[in-house]
Amino acid sequence: MTKQKGNRMIANNKKAYHDYFIEDKYEAGISLAGTEVKSLRMGKCSIKESFIRIERDEVFIYGMHISPYEKGNIFNKDPLRIRKLLLHDYEIRKLEAQIKEKGYTLVPLQVYFKGSLVKVEIGLARGKKLYDKRQDIAKKDQRREAERDFKVKNLY
User: Whole-prediction pTM value?
Assistant: First the structure.
């Protein structure tokens, strides 16, 4: 868990940045139950394989795994249950229109604490083609080599 701009990050979805072009970002609250907040405080969350859908003017996140709290016994919920995301009506309508019209999708980018509230950063994303992914990998390799060369030059 790292701190970012006064927020404490719980989970980050690096794969989303590899697989999609992120066009826009939104911050949403999340509806949690039972001991899920305690598990999140311990950092036991994964959004690697999760996705977001809009159904009947409500936004839901599927596949988000929050591990059961060890001391929660009967108050623990299903780790992979569907959770509702909390957005304003105008944001939901805007997202729904963009998804239908332009062929975008919604992906969770990160889960973090903002004060005492749990927030999910949602990305309005467009899928990358295979050649786009190859170009990104090549750029990362070049940057990594340049940084490595710079470190070696500064050692001598």
Answer: 0.73
